[in-house]
Protein backbone atom coordinates (compact mmCIF):
# COMPACT_ATOMS: atom_id res chain seq x y z
CA UNK A 1 0.00 0.00 0.00
CA UNK A 2 1.41 3.40 -0.97
CA UNK A 3 1.94 6.24 1.47
CA UNK A 4 -1.20 8.18 2.35
CA UNK A 5 -1.39 11.65 3.86
CA UNK A 6 -3.65 13.47 6.30
CA UNK A 7 -3.43 17.20 7.03
CA UNK A 8 -4.87 18.56 10.23
CA UNK A 9 -6.12 22.04 9.35
CA UNK A 10 -6.32 23.25 12.94
CA UNK A 11 -3.42 24.45 15.08
CA UNK A 12 -1.47 21.60 16.65
CA UNK A 13 -0.27 22.61 20.10
CA UNK A 14 2.70 20.78 21.55
CA UNK A 15 3.29 19.91 25.18
CA UNK A 16 5.79 22.79 25.33
CA UNK A 17 3.15 25.29 24.21
CA UNK A 18 4.70 25.72 20.76
CA UNK A 19 2.34 25.37 17.80
CA UNK A 20 2.45 23.83 14.34
CA UNK A 21 0.07 24.97 11.64
CA UNK A 22 -1.36 22.46 9.16
CA UNK A 23 0.16 19.31 10.65
CA UNK A 24 0.75 16.76 7.88
CA UNK A 25 0.89 13.06 8.80
CA UNK A 26 2.06 10.32 6.44
CA UNK A 27 0.72 6.83 7.05
CA UNK A 28 0.24 3.39 5.53
CA UNK A 29 -2.69 1.00 5.83
CA UNK A 30 -2.99 -2.65 4.82
CA UNK A 31 -6.12 -4.76 4.59
CA UNK A 32 -9.72 -3.74 5.31
CA UNK A 33 -11.65 -3.02 8.48
CA UNK A 34 -14.10 -5.87 9.05
CA UNK A 35 -17.82 -5.55 9.72
CA UNK A 36 -17.37 -5.63 13.50
CA UNK A 37 -14.45 -3.15 13.30
CA UNK A 38 -12.47 -5.35 15.68
CA UNK A 39 -9.46 -6.20 13.51
CA UNK A 40 -7.48 -2.94 13.74
CA UNK A 41 -3.77 -3.40 14.48
CA UNK A 42 -1.93 -0.13 15.02
CA UNK A 43 1.88 -0.21 14.89
CA UNK A 44 4.01 2.52 16.44
CA UNK A 45 7.39 2.54 14.72
CA UNK A 46 10.84 3.01 16.25
CA UNK A 47 13.42 5.78 15.88
CA UNK A 48 14.52 5.69 12.22
CA UNK A 49 11.84 3.40 10.78
CA UNK A 50 8.82 4.59 8.79
CA UNK A 51 5.15 3.84 8.29
CA UNK A 52 5.76 0.98 5.80
CA UNK A 53 5.76 -1.73 8.46
CA UNK A 54 5.44 -4.47 5.84
CA UNK A 55 8.88 -3.42 4.62
CA UNK A 56 10.88 -3.18 7.85
CA UNK A 57 9.16 -5.86 10.00
CA UNK A 58 9.07 -8.70 7.48
CA UNK A 59 8.37 -12.10 8.96
CA UNK A 60 6.02 -10.51 11.47
CA UNK A 61 3.97 -8.29 9.16
CA UNK A 62 3.29 -9.43 5.60
CA UNK A 63 1.02 -11.32 3.25
CA UNK A 64 1.85 -14.69 4.83
CA UNK A 65 2.88 -13.57 8.30
CA UNK A 66 1.13 -13.38 11.66
CA UNK A 67 -0.19 -9.90 10.98
CA UNK A 68 -1.49 -10.04 7.43
CA UNK A 69 -3.96 -7.97 5.39
CA UNK A 70 -6.40 -10.87 5.01
CA UNK A 71 -7.17 -10.96 8.74
CA UNK A 72 -6.14 -7.54 9.99
CA UNK A 73 -6.48 -3.87 9.16
CA UNK A 74 -2.95 -2.67 9.88
CA UNK A 75 -2.07 0.99 10.34
CA UNK A 76 1.31 2.59 10.90
CA UNK A 77 1.76 6.36 10.99
CA UNK A 78 5.04 8.11 10.37
CA UNK A 79 5.90 9.89 13.59
CA UNK A 80 6.21 13.61 14.19
CA UNK A 81 9.71 14.80 13.26
CA UNK A 82 10.57 11.85 11.05
CA UNK A 83 11.25 12.58 7.36
CA UNK A 84 8.91 10.05 5.73
CA UNK A 85 5.72 12.01 5.18
CA UNK A 86 5.02 13.76 8.49
CA UNK A 87 6.04 17.33 9.34
CA UNK A 88 9.71 17.42 10.35
CA UNK A 89 12.69 19.79 10.51
CA UNK A 90 13.12 19.72 6.72
CA UNK A 91 9.48 20.67 6.12
CA UNK A 92 8.59 24.19 5.05
CA UNK A 93 7.71 26.56 7.86
CA UNK A 94 4.61 28.40 6.63
CA UNK A 95 5.63 31.50 8.57
CA UNK A 96 9.04 31.90 6.91
CA UNK A 97 8.59 29.97 3.66
CA UNK A 98 11.86 28.15 4.44
CA UNK A 99 12.61 24.75 6.00
CA UNK A 100 12.51 24.69 9.80
CA UNK A 101 15.89 23.08 10.44
CA UNK A 102 16.81 24.02 14.03
CA UNK A 103 13.79 26.31 14.34
CA UNK A 104 11.59 23.22 14.54
CA UNK A 105 9.91 23.12 17.96
CA UNK A 106 10.93 20.56 20.58
CA UNK A 107 8.36 17.78 20.96
CA UNK A 108 7.77 14.79 23.21
CA UNK A 109 6.45 11.25 23.00
CA UNK A 110 3.09 12.62 24.15
CA UNK A 111 3.06 15.00 21.19
CA UNK A 112 3.72 12.07 18.83
CA UNK A 113 0.77 10.22 20.39
CA UNK A 114 -1.42 13.31 20.13
CA UNK A 115 -0.80 13.24 16.37
CA UNK A 116 -1.70 9.53 16.27
CA UNK A 117 -4.98 10.35 18.01
CA UNK A 118 -5.82 12.97 15.38
CA UNK A 119 -5.21 10.44 12.60
CA UNK A 120 -7.31 7.79 14.38
CA UNK A 121 -10.17 10.27 14.73
CA UNK A 122 -9.85 11.22 11.05
CA UNK A 123 -10.05 7.53 10.07
CA UNK A 124 -13.01 7.06 12.45
CA UNK A 125 -11.18 4.38 14.40
CA UNK A 126 -12.69 4.40 17.87
CA UNK A 127 -11.45 0.93 18.81
CA UNK A 128 -7.93 -0.45 18.39
CA UNK A 129 -7.88 -4.22 18.85
CA UNK A 130 -4.07 -4.41 19.13
CA UNK A 131 -1.64 -1.54 19.69
CA UNK A 132 2.02 -2.48 19.59
CA UNK A 133 5.52 -1.16 19.23
CA UNK A 134 9.13 -1.80 20.09
CA UNK A 135 11.71 0.60 21.55
CA UNK A 136 10.56 4.19 20.90
CA UNK A 137 7.49 2.63 19.30
CA UNK A 138 6.74 0.89 22.59
CA UNK A 139 7.08 4.20 24.41
CA UNK A 140 4.39 5.64 22.14
CA UNK A 141 2.10 2.64 22.57
CA UNK A 142 2.39 2.77 26.36
CA UNK A 143 1.73 6.49 26.47
CA UNK A 144 -1.32 6.14 24.22
CA UNK A 145 -2.75 3.35 26.39
CA UNK A 146 -2.59 5.71 29.39
CA UNK A 147 -4.04 8.74 27.58
CA UNK A 148 -6.92 6.78 26.01
CA UNK A 149 -7.37 3.51 27.91
CA UNK A 150 -10.87 3.08 26.47
CA UNK A 151 -9.63 3.00 22.86
CA UNK A 152 -7.01 0.26 23.32
CA UNK A 153 -8.11 -3.37 23.92
CA UNK A 154 -4.79 -5.24 23.68
CA UNK A 155 -1.33 -3.77 24.14
CA UNK A 156 2.02 -5.30 23.13
CA UNK A 157 5.14 -3.60 24.46
CA UNK A 158 8.50 -4.85 23.17
CA UNK A 159 11.95 -3.84 24.45
CA UNK A 160 10.71 -0.56 25.91
CA UNK A 161 10.28 1.25 29.23
CA UNK A 162 8.10 3.46 31.42
CA UNK A 163 10.57 6.32 31.34
CA UNK A 164 13.82 6.67 29.49
CA UNK A 165 16.79 5.76 31.64
CA UNK A 166 19.88 7.87 32.43
CA UNK A 167 21.82 5.22 30.48
CA UNK A 168 19.62 5.66 27.41
CA UNK A 169 19.74 9.45 27.69
CA UNK A 170 23.54 9.30 27.93
CA UNK A 171 23.71 7.28 24.70
CA UNK A 172 21.44 9.81 22.98
CA UNK A 173 23.43 12.78 24.24
CA UNK A 174 26.65 11.17 23.00
CA UNK A 175 25.06 10.87 19.57
CA UNK A 176 23.92 14.49 19.65
CA UNK A 177 27.44 15.57 20.63
CA UNK A 178 28.74 13.75 17.56
CA UNK A 179 26.19 15.50 15.35
CA UNK A 180 26.86 18.98 16.72
CA UNK A 181 30.64 18.45 16.42
CA UNK A 182 30.00 18.54 12.68
CA UNK A 183 29.88 22.29 12.01
CA UNK A 184 27.73 21.80 8.91
CA UNK A 185 24.85 20.90 11.24
CA UNK A 186 24.40 24.66 11.74
CA UNK A 187 24.53 25.45 8.02
CA UNK A 188 20.77 24.94 7.51
CA UNK A 189 21.06 22.65 4.51
CA UNK A 190 19.31 19.29 3.91
CA UNK A 191 22.59 17.37 4.26
CA UNK A 192 23.86 19.43 7.19
CA UNK A 193 25.52 17.36 9.91
CA UNK A 194 25.90 14.28 7.72
CA UNK A 195 29.35 13.34 9.04
CA UNK A 196 28.09 13.80 12.57
CA UNK A 197 25.06 11.64 11.83
CA UNK A 198 27.33 8.89 10.53
CA UNK A 199 29.30 8.95 13.80
CA UNK A 200 26.08 9.08 15.83
CA UNK A 201 24.76 5.97 14.11
CA UNK A 202 28.01 4.17 14.89
CA UNK A 203 27.52 5.00 18.59
CA UNK A 204 23.90 3.85 18.45
CA UNK A 205 24.83 0.49 16.96
CA UNK A 206 26.86 -0.33 20.05
CA UNK A 207 23.69 -0.01 22.11
CA UNK A 208 21.50 -1.88 19.63
CA UNK A 209 23.71 -4.95 19.53
CA UNK A 210 26.34 -6.06 22.08
CA UNK A 211 29.64 -7.81 22.73
CA UNK A 212 28.39 -11.27 21.78
CA UNK A 213 26.80 -10.04 18.54
CA UNK A 214 30.02 -8.46 17.33
CA UNK A 215 32.09 -11.41 18.51
CA UNK A 216 30.05 -13.72 16.30
CA UNK A 217 29.40 -11.51 13.26
CA UNK A 218 32.59 -9.42 13.04
CA UNK A 219 35.26 -11.84 14.28
CA UNK A 220 38.48 -11.94 12.24
CA UNK A 221 40.00 -15.17 10.89
CA UNK A 222 43.41 -13.64 10.14
CA UNK A 223 45.60 -13.45 13.26
CA UNK A 224 48.14 -11.26 11.47
CA UNK A 225 45.66 -8.44 10.81
CA UNK A 226 46.57 -5.05 12.31
CA UNK A 227 44.13 -2.77 10.46
CA UNK A 228 41.01 -2.70 8.26
CA UNK A 229 38.98 -4.86 10.62
CA UNK A 230 35.49 -6.15 9.82
CA UNK A 231 34.07 -4.33 12.84
CA UNK A 232 35.51 -1.03 11.63
CA UNK A 233 34.09 -1.34 8.12
CA UNK A 234 30.75 -2.46 9.55
CA UNK A 235 30.45 0.68 11.68
CA UNK A 236 31.32 2.92 8.75
CA UNK A 237 28.95 1.12 6.38
CA UNK A 238 25.99 1.24 8.76
CA UNK A 239 26.63 4.90 9.52
CA UNK A 240 26.68 5.84 5.85
CA UNK A 241 23.61 3.69 5.19
CA UNK A 242 21.59 5.86 7.58
CA UNK A 243 23.02 9.09 6.13
CA UNK A 244 21.80 7.98 2.70
CA UNK A 245 18.17 7.77 3.87
CA UNK A 246 17.82 10.13 6.83
CA UNK A 247 18.85 13.58 8.07
CA UNK A 248 20.71 14.82 11.11
CA UNK A 249 18.00 17.26 12.18
CA UNK A 250 15.25 14.64 12.45
CA UNK A 251 17.63 12.33 14.30
CA UNK A 252 18.66 15.06 16.74
CA UNK A 253 15.05 16.01 17.56
CA UNK A 254 13.82 12.43 17.85
CA UNK A 255 16.55 11.42 20.28
CA UNK A 256 15.44 14.38 22.43
CA UNK A 257 11.82 13.17 22.17
CA UNK A 258 12.92 9.74 23.36
CA UNK A 259 14.67 11.34 26.34
CA UNK A 260 11.40 13.07 27.26
CA UNK A 261 9.59 9.77 27.78
CA UNK A 262 8.23 9.53 31.32
CA UNK A 263 4.68 8.27 31.81
CA UNK A 264 4.74 9.56 35.39
CA UNK A 265 5.13 13.23 34.40
CA UNK A 266 2.11 15.13 35.70
CA UNK A 267 0.39 11.91 36.79
CA UNK A 268 1.68 11.43 40.31
CA UNK A 269 4.58 9.19 39.36
CA UNK A 270 5.31 6.20 37.15
CA UNK A 271 3.61 3.54 39.26
CA UNK A 272 0.36 5.47 39.40
CA UNK A 273 0.47 6.13 35.66
CA UNK A 274 0.99 2.45 34.82
CA UNK A 275 -2.01 1.53 36.98
CA UNK A 276 -4.15 3.52 34.53
CA UNK A 277 -3.54 1.03 31.70
CA UNK A 278 -6.74 -0.92 31.08
CA UNK A 279 -5.61 -2.92 28.06
CA UNK A 280 -4.79 -6.61 28.20
CA UNK A 281 -1.01 -6.24 27.99
CA UNK A 282 1.89 -8.37 26.81
CA UNK A 283 5.35 -7.14 27.75
CA UNK A 284 8.31 -8.68 25.92
CA UNK A 285 11.93 -8.23 26.97
CA UNK A 286 15.15 -9.31 25.29
CA UNK A 287 17.67 -11.00 27.54
CA UNK A 288 20.72 -9.51 25.78
CA UNK A 289 19.34 -5.97 25.41
CA UNK A 290 21.83 -3.44 26.84
CA UNK A 291 19.88 -0.32 25.80
CA UNK A 292 16.52 -1.32 27.29
CA UNK A 293 17.55 -3.99 29.84
CA UNK A 294 15.00 -6.67 30.58
CA UNK A 295 14.60 -5.26 34.09
CA UNK A 296 12.71 -2.35 32.53
CA UNK A 297 10.16 -4.68 30.94
CA UNK A 298 9.83 -6.67 34.16
CA UNK A 299 8.99 -3.40 35.89
CA UNK A 300 6.20 -2.74 33.38
CA UNK A 301 4.91 -6.28 33.94
CA UNK A 302 4.78 -5.81 37.70
CA UNK A 303 2.91 -2.50 37.55
CA UNK A 304 0.48 -2.84 34.63
CA UNK A 305 -2.69 -4.51 36.01
CA UNK A 306 -3.66 -7.04 33.30
CA UNK A 307 -0.25 -8.03 32.00
CA UNK A 308 1.82 -11.00 30.92
CA UNK A 309 5.57 -11.17 30.42
CA UNK A 310 7.79 -13.06 28.00
CA UNK A 311 11.53 -12.99 27.41
CA UNK A 312 13.38 -13.45 24.12
CA UNK A 313 16.81 -15.06 24.22
CA UNK A 314 18.56 -13.47 21.26
CA UNK A 315 22.23 -12.70 20.64
CA UNK A 316 21.15 -9.70 18.51
CA UNK A 317 20.55 -7.51 21.58
CA UNK A 318 18.01 -4.70 21.29
CA UNK A 319 17.66 -5.32 17.54
CA UNK A 320 16.35 -8.79 18.33
CA UNK A 321 12.76 -7.53 18.19
CA UNK A 322 13.23 -6.78 14.49
CA UNK A 323 14.94 -10.09 13.74
CA UNK A 324 13.42 -12.83 15.91
CA UNK A 325 10.05 -12.64 14.17
CA UNK A 326 9.18 -16.33 14.53
CA UNK A 327 9.77 -16.21 18.27
CA UNK A 328 7.61 -13.09 18.51
CA UNK A 329 4.87 -14.85 16.59
CA UNK A 330 5.02 -17.84 18.96
CA UNK A 331 4.86 -15.61 22.04
CA UNK A 332 1.93 -13.56 20.76
CA UNK A 333 0.04 -16.69 19.72
CA UNK A 334 0.43 -18.04 23.26
CA UNK A 335 -0.60 -14.70 24.75
CA UNK A 336 -3.95 -14.68 23.02
CA UNK A 337 -4.67 -18.23 24.20
CA UNK A 338 -4.23 -17.62 27.90
CA UNK A 339 -5.44 -15.66 30.90
CA UNK A 340 -2.86 -12.89 31.14
CA UNK A 341 -2.97 -11.68 34.73
CA UNK A 342 0.47 -12.14 36.22
CA UNK A 343 1.34 -14.69 33.55
CA UNK A 344 4.89 -15.44 32.46
CA UNK A 345 4.83 -16.88 28.96
CA UNK A 346 7.47 -19.45 28.18
CA UNK A 347 8.66 -19.36 24.59
CA UNK A 348 7.85 -22.56 22.74
CA UNK A 349 10.45 -23.14 20.06
CA UNK A 350 9.23 -24.51 16.77
CA UNK A 351 11.08 -27.22 14.93
UniProtKB/TrEMBL annotation:
Any GO CC annotation of this UniProt entry: cytoplasm
Active site, renumbered: 135, 289, 318
EC class of the enzyme, as a word: transferase
Boundaries of every AB hydrolase-1 domain copy: 40-323
GO molecular function, one term: homoserine O-acetyltransferase activity
Alphabetic keyword roster: Acyltransferase, Amino-acid biosynthesis, Cytoplasm, Methionine biosynthesis, Transferase
Localization of this protein: Cytoplasm
Pathway given in the UniProt record: Amino-acid biosynthesis; L-methionine biosynthesis via de novo pathway; O-acetyl-L-homoserine from L-homoserine: step 1/1
InterPro entries recorded: AB_hydrolase_1, AB_hydrolase_fold, HAT_MetX-like
Catalytic activity: L-homoserine + acetyl-CoA = O-acetyl-L-homoserine + CoA
UniProt-annotated binding residues for substrate: 201, 319
One GO BP annotation of this record: homoserine metabolic process
This enzyme's EC code(s): 2.3.1.31
This protein's record includes keyword Transferase: yes
Keyword field contains Zinc: no
UniProt similarity note: Belongs to the AB hydrolase superfamily. MetX family.
Chain's role: Transfers an acetyl group from acetyl-CoA to L-homoserine, forming acetyl-L-homoserine.
UniProt subunit comment: Homodimer.
HAMAP family, A to Z: MetX_acyltransf
The protein, known as: Homoserine O-acetyltransferase
